Amino acid sequence: xxxxxxxxxxxxxxxxxxxxxxxxxxxxxxxxxxxxxxxxxxxxxxxxxxxxxxxxxxxxxxxxxxxxxxxxxxxxxxxxxxxxxxxxxxxxxxxxxxxxxxxxxxxxxxxxxxxxxxxxxxxxxxxxxxxxxxxxxxxxxxxxxxxxxxxxxxxxxxxxxxxxxxxxxxxxxxxxxxxxxxxxxxxxxx
Length: 190
Hints:
- The protein is of the alpha+beta class.
- The chain contains seven helices and six strands, in the order αααββαββββααα.
- It starts with 7 loop residues before the first helix and ends in a 13-residue tail after the last helix.
């Protein structure tokens, strides 16, 4: 990976700031554009290659999106792989892509009729909806790699409590009295 060292630290700081404070993409784009203006004022043309969009910053830093994109049907909610829809759009001469889902294909009592809702049109060249998805194993991996993860698991047991005030689910009676089995003498579940 080749990163221009004269501003890579700025990009890393902006991306870390975005993650820490959960900033939306539009706010990060504004930060990048403002930083490019400041750098060009101070340093001149040597900062022309500073990225002014989040897309270019990700490319510059070698960051990859770990999302899978699906195209959901707005009517029946069947998910289609976005790359498959893109291939159909390139190869198909018909301008409209429709949902082909059949709700109960093996039912003898129902008619087998496909949904036929419009997923994408050739003129627009993009689906009506996009459903981003991160697999559970990637989500768990991210969760387990958080700093002090084990301590965070015990956070509920070390928190401040108030008399007669329910401030959290942990304050409820079910949390304190729930047993592992129906037997009254069994150990508490939590």
